[in-house]
Every structure is written in C-alpha cells, then in structure tokens.
Amino acid sequence: ISSSQHQMHSFLDCLNSGSLPSKFIFTPENQSYTSLFFSSIQNNRTLLNSPKPLLIITPTLESHVSATVLCSKELNIPLRTRSGGHDYEGLSYTTTSSSFVLIDLHKFRSITIDLTDNTAWADAGATLGELYYSISSQSGNTLAFPAGVCPTVGLGGHFSGGGLGMMMRAYGLAVDNIIDARIATASGEVLDRGSMGEDLFWALRGGGGASFGIILSYKLKLLQIPPKVTVLNIDKLLEQGAIKLLAKWQQIAHNLDKRLFLRVVLQVVDDENHKSSNKTLMASFQSLFLGEQTELLTLMAESFPELGVKSNHCVELSWIRSVLYIAGFPPGGSLKKLLDRKPQYHDLFKTKSDFLSVPFNVDVWEAISARLVGQNEPPYVIIDPFGGRMDEIGVTETPFPHRKGSLYGIQYIKTWEDPGVETARENIDRMRNLYKFMTPYVSRDPRAAYLNYRDLDLGRNANMNASYSEASVWGEKYYKVNFRRLAQVKSKAENIDRYANKLCLALQGLLN
Ligand code: FDA
C-alpha cells in the first residue's frame, strides 16, 4: 500500500469516527470523483504537474467542515478549500506538496434574505449568480449587492480578495458591504464576528482566501437599486479616433457621477478595411448606469460628448437583467441562467494586474496601442475606473488598499487553446513582456496588484518558514500598508494554534 493510499485510508477512518456520512466523501475510485474534481476549474493551465486530491469532501453542514479540519490537523495532511474554483493560479485545487484533501463547498450554498433589515446570510459555496438571483427574486427587484460580473465566481474566494464589479463606484466592493461572517478555525471551532474579534473580521474582508481558516458564510448588507438601470456598449477602432477618446475617457471616468461606471476593454481585431491580415485596436466602452437612459444620455453629452452616445447604444432594463447582459447573455433570456454553475469559460489563461494613479496621455496610449497591435497574439486588456465611493473608504478600513488615488485598475488576460507546456510557456512569456513594457506607465513603489487577479509571478513563499520581509515582496503589492497588519493577525491565529500555518497552506504567502 503506497503512502498516499495509507494517508487516504487514515483520513477516511478519521472522518468515519468524526461521523461524517460517506455520501459526502469521494475517493479516486468513486465514479463521480473525476467529474467532481474538474467541475468548477476555470484555468486548465494550473493543472500541469499538479497531483489530484487524496479525497474530495463535499460538506453540507458546518460540522462537516469542522470534522474535516480536525482530521487534517490530526493527520497532518494539508487541505485545499474550493468555493467557485475560479482562482487564476488554481490555488484552491492544486498543491506543490504531494498529498492533500480537497474540501469543495459547492453543496454548501444556502442563501437567506431578510427583508426586514435588508441583509442576507450567504454560504461561501454559493456563486455570485445564485446570490444575485436570490436577492432580486426575493426583494422584487428592489435590492442588489455590489460584486463581480461573472455569475459562476464563488463567494468564498471572491469575498476573500475584495470583489469588484460594475457598481463599485456607487457602493464600493463586496467586502465594503460584509457585516458579519462565520469561519471554521484551524482548531475546528466555528466563530462569528462577535467571537472572532475585529482584527480577524477585518482580515477576512479581502485579506486572502485560505489564510485564516475556512469561511463558512457571510452576512451582507443589501443595497437599494432603482427599478431601471441602463447599460451601454460602444466600440471604437483606431481609425475612428480611439486614441483621443481613450485619453479623454481616462481624464474623466474616475470623476463621473458615482452611479456611472464606464470601463474600457481593449482588444486587437481584424481591420476590415484592409482585406489582408492587418490588425487594428478596438476600444469597447462599456457602462452600467444606476438610472434611466434619458439621464445617462444627458450625463454623457455633458461629460463626454466626443463618444457620441445615442439611445441605440443603450439598453434600459432591471438590475438583474443588466447582470445577465454584462455576463454576455441575452438580457431577455431566462434568469435561471444565473444559477448555472458550469464554468462559462473553460480555458487556459494567464492574467496580470496593475493600478494607475496618473492617467495615460495620448503618447502613452499611442505606444500601448502600437505595442498591442504589433504583438503576436496579444492579450486583451480591461481597464476599470475607480473613484466615487471607492475614494470615500480609507486605505486601512479593509485589507484592500487600492482606494483614493488609485484611479484605474487594469487587468491583462491572455487565453489559448493548445494544452501543451510549450504553448503555455510562450504565452506566459508574452504576458511577462507586456507587463515589463507597461512598467513606466503604471503604479510604482510598490507596483500594485489585485489579490483576486492572483499572479504567482509576483512571488510566493518558498516554505513555511518564509520571513516577513521575504513575504512582503509580493504581499505589499497586493496589500500595501495593510500587509503588516495581516501578518500580525495571522501570527496571532498561529499562536492560538500552530496548526493554523498548515491549514492555510493554500495562501500565496502569509502561510505558504
Ligand atoms: P476558488 O474556489 O478557486 O478560491 C480562490 C481562493 O480562495 C483559493 O485560495 C481558495 O483556497 C480560497 N477559498 C475559497 N473558498 C474559501 C473559503 N470558503 N474559505 C477560505 N478560503 C477559501 N474578480 C473580481 O473582483 N471581479 C470580477 O468581476 C471577477 N470576474 C472573474 C471572472 C472569471 C471568469 C474568473 C475566472 C475570475 C474572476 N474574478 C473576478 C476573480 C475572482 O474574484 C477570484 O478568482 C476569486 O478568488 C474566485 O473565487 P472562487 O471561490 O470562485 O475561487
């Protein structure tokens, strides 16, 4: 019997004696094991060279989570926690060590809305689509919650890193609207805000998934939403003056009415005016406005007349239908689409992120455009305006530090189809080169990054004994001044229980 089989059997024995019913436990022999393992994986690149879990546990009760944690601790076998499986580097289901157990929370996903005080308790294994659907259907479309745009993203990972979306200029991030949480600690104990204390509660709101224990559920403050909102999409090519529009857009988008979120997606497309293989840059201006179309048209005419927004670029609809539209589905289609947990994108990809505190001028836009158009298989780039409510929340109020002064967040995304190692290497190199090219134009000291757009190129701890200064290499990029407090919260948790370090093995750095 191999050592991994021995570990698996020991874990099974432990779970049985902890009375976890066997229907929640999947061994590699189980018929559903493989489909379950792959069910929510978004980035197949991350599977290269990674072992599969000894067991997959699918809890439905808090006590199942605690029992799994206690066995992991007793047997010294690391756990990985997966909610929605969207981690860009696959940290929720891969490991560099040989054996681990996967706790997959997809069945742990109830959502309870309380309309007496406009709050919700949502389990970590629920997806954003399930959350938005429940809020909208139960409140009669009067309440909403500000978080990310992709319906299949899991709450557990997303809320652990911040959670930004199209309503952040009006309402901030998901973490700015979390008012309580329940967590299973390394000792198997379940704590809420009252019993965990404010330091740990602070750290849970953006300080990194898998860092402090297994988050079970969150209490959310729901927000009033007008009956009609308006979405807008308008594409401009280089030949249609995209550069000047981009330069103007970046002067104003972080300063607009806070109900108006106007982002840009840049991609290289075929230039249809040239019949040859010539390429051009397309800038898509995409917006969510928390109000009616007539008011949006007036605002756009006043602040950005050059874009030439007309009513045919806009769609007025309910907030929940705007969620469907922004996620790429027909806005009139079935809202049940939001409940589909099957990954919308099942890709190989690499992403990186940046922040801007100074808008690009026309020369910089020209240089970026030439670089993207001239590059073989360039990535696409999403640029989100901050400002508005984001400016009103202090840098240290939550671990997410990119507040006043961070005018824009940038995400670079490169996808490919060939699963070969060589293709992955080429594409990762392309991304690294573009990132290097962007250095003079983006934030510095530190060059900031967004935890939810996790990028292991920024660094990771070599082992469990990494020092604070070694970890700060990547930690300060994600967290700036907040990294020190996160490390302090973490070390306090470790003093309570040394095992916390191992439980949290999945984290990029605080714990490994
Ligand atoms: P996953 O389950 O992979 O977990 C991510 C990390 O959190 C892992 O380290 C994991 O161990 C840990 N974790 C998960 N559940 C936990 C729990 N219950 N307790 C403790 N730790 C836990 N971001 C954004 O801000 N806005 C957006 O609009 C989008 N859009 C988007 C679209 C797509 C297609 C992808 C792939 C990703 C995004 N993201 C995003 C990024 C997303 O927020 C980020 O990847 C989240 O970590 C995903 O959370 P999941 O629970 O799905 O991931």
UniProtKB/TrEMBL annotation:
One annotated GO molecular function is: oxidoreductase activity
- Coiled-coil stretches are none
Give the cofactors, semicolon-separated. Answer: FAD
Where is the FAD-binding PCMH-type domain positioned along the sequence? 49-225
Q: Which UniProt keywords apply?
A: FAD, Flavoprotein, Glycoprotein, Signal
Membership in a protein family: Belongs to the oxygen-dependent FAD-linked oxidoreductase family.
Indicate what this protein is called per its UniProt record.
FAD-binding PCMH-type domain-containing protein
Q: Which organism is it from?
A: Platanthera zijinensis
The organism that produces this protein has a lineage beginning with: Eukaryota, Viridiplantae, Streptophyta, Embryophyta, Tracheophyta
